[in-house]
Amino acid sequence: MRRILFFCVILALLLSTPFTAIPSAAVGEYCWFCERSGQKQPRISQEEKLINKYNAYNIDRSVSDTSDNRVIYLTFDVGYENGNTAKILDVLREEDVKAAFFILDNVIYRNKDLLMRMVEEGHSVCNHTLNHKNICRMTSNDAKANVLSLEKLYNQQTGLEMSKYFRFPEGKYSEEALKAVNELGYKTFFWSFAYADWDNNSQPNTEYAYKKVIDNTHNGAIMLFHPTSSTNVQIFPRLISEWKAMGYTFGTLDQVGL
Predict the structure, then answer these.
(1) Residue 8 within any structural domain of the chain
(2) Is 123 known to be catalytic?
(3) Which in 2, 88, 105, 195 has the greatest CB count within 10 A?
(4) Can you give the pTM of this predicted structure?
(5) Average pLDDT per 10 consecutive residues for the chain, totaling 258 residues
(6) Annotated catalytic residue: which of 77, 105, 123, 197?
(7) Residue 159 falls within a domain, yes or no?
(8) Under a CB-based contact definition with an 8 Å cutoff, are residues 193 and 226 in contact?
(9) Candidates 123, 128, 218, 226; catalytic one
(10) Sign of the alpha-carbon torsion through 181, 196, 233, 111
(11) Residue range of the domain that includes 243
């Protein structure tokens, strides 16, 4: 009986404890997770204070829940193209909305025309590492080399300069890696809202996804999506229409942290 009571107490503590950064296998490595607060901004956490030290952000705190200025930031992680990214760009163009796209080398090699379109239509093309490797497991010099390799490849293939915005693959970060990226002159972006849209073999129901996004849209939100998602293609026209009806404008990442 005592053993059962002990396990019940431990389980209750685990379920009731809020947390934002989940320690992973490597010492000093964390996986970003932002606790949701519905249509209110999530609380300021110790992890947010840490990343802010290195020019890294998960939300725009220059606005609050009561601010007259209502703004959200749309960001997309693009590991590859499957036909849906172009459709997302179509929606953004029709709605005159700008976004940030965090890319890998694969997109540069295979979809240069798509990247050129992003730039021509006013979007930011940003750094998601060369090959989606966990740079927290690298030395500081190797992590910097990985980030700079993507920047160089992008310039060689397009003749353009990459936006100095960075996102850690899978949200895995460490203080040393944050410092290394910051020393390269990059501003790092995590997120204050994301949902399970990345698995193309298990796409969420459109009504569920739409409600999940709207119910968790808050002022200053940095929202993470994957443009390869067929669900996102279906719900984005409706999402943008509803966001506008809620009074939101769509910011660019250079506004965050000011």
Answers:
(1) no
(2) no
(3) 88
(4) 0.90
(5) 36 34 63 93 95 98 97 97 97 98 98 98 98 97 98 98 98 98 98 96 97 98 98 98 98 92
(6) 77
(7) yes
(8) no
(9) 226
(10) positive
(11) 47-63+70-247
